[in-house]
Amino acid sequence: MTDKRLFFVTGKGGVGKTLTSFALAAKLKEVSHKKVFINGFDQSVDSELAKELGIEVLDLPLIDSTIEYISRKIKSKTLANWVMKTSFFKALFNMVPSLGNMITFGHLIDLLEDNDEWIVVVDAPSSGHILTVLESPQNFKNIFKTGALVKDIDRMLKFIDSRLMEVWVLSIPTELAIVEGKELYDKVKARGVSHIKWILNNSFSANDAITSEQLPDFLSRKAQSEDELTKSTINEYDLVVPMHIDKNSKSIIKHIKDKISTILD
Q1: Per-residue burial over 223-253, b = 16 or more CB atoms within 10 Å of its CB, e = otherwise
Q2: Secondary structure class of 68 (helix, strand, coil)
Q3: Is residue 235 part of a domain?
Q4: Is residue 73 a part of any domain in this protein?
Q5: How confident is the model at residue 90 (pLDDT cuts 50, 70, 90)?
Q6: What is the pTM of this model?
Q7: Could you give phi then psi for residue 198, rounded to 5 degrees?
Q8: How many Å apart are CA 95 and CA 98, to the nearest integer?
Q9: CA-CA 20 to 30 A from 162: which of 73, 109, 120, 190?
Q10: What CATH number should be reported for the domain holding residue 219?
Q11: Which domain holds residue 195?
Q12: Crossing angle of helices 62-74 and 87-95, rounded to 10°
């Protein structure tokens, strides 16, 4: 059973982040016996799909997260609401969007520290998003130097480096996705994350049920092309998820869920 409390699932667009996030949340709910949530950070989550899978959505709109964060610091939600209505703060968030990322991240950590039985899976909006989340605490620490905010930032940096957080970087077997996935993996690691997994998703070659058959020429060429693309990186992946021929989201999620047990440590 994993001791991780916060998972970020990330990668370039089209690599299967959302379905993998749901599969991970469903598996964690099954094996951890904890309360598992799925979160889209600053994007909405498919609440209907979550309901069908029995997974709770943790919705943290930026304004709500900021009010909660400020109210904890000044011990007054009324004042926090007033602060957020000022033109200064509205302008600040427009000029420095990474501040909102940091506050939402801090809010997530607060919730996990307040609730020992919670696990949160974040379906990260993009590759750049996770890097902004990881960079913003250190950047703002350099700006503010000292004070209550810096103490919170130190707590965030400690959480990033702890066993409580893990980042899953997804790729698919295309040249661009593999190159970007490797670059993202290295950048996430360079930003202090101790626990990272690199996953090759939707692999045609890994589907034995397909490749064991006599394939038409165009599919044989696809399998060969994929093998050539992945031969230099195949031993670096923590998991290779075979392609699943189905358009039903719940079926694909179940397929992924059945594969990820081996990398939950």
Answers
A1: beebeebbeebeeebebbbbbbeeeeeeebb
A2: helix
A3: yes
A4: no
A5: low
A6: 0.91
A7: -115, 125
A8: 9
A9: 73
A10: 3.40.50.300
A11: 6-61+104-263
A12: 120
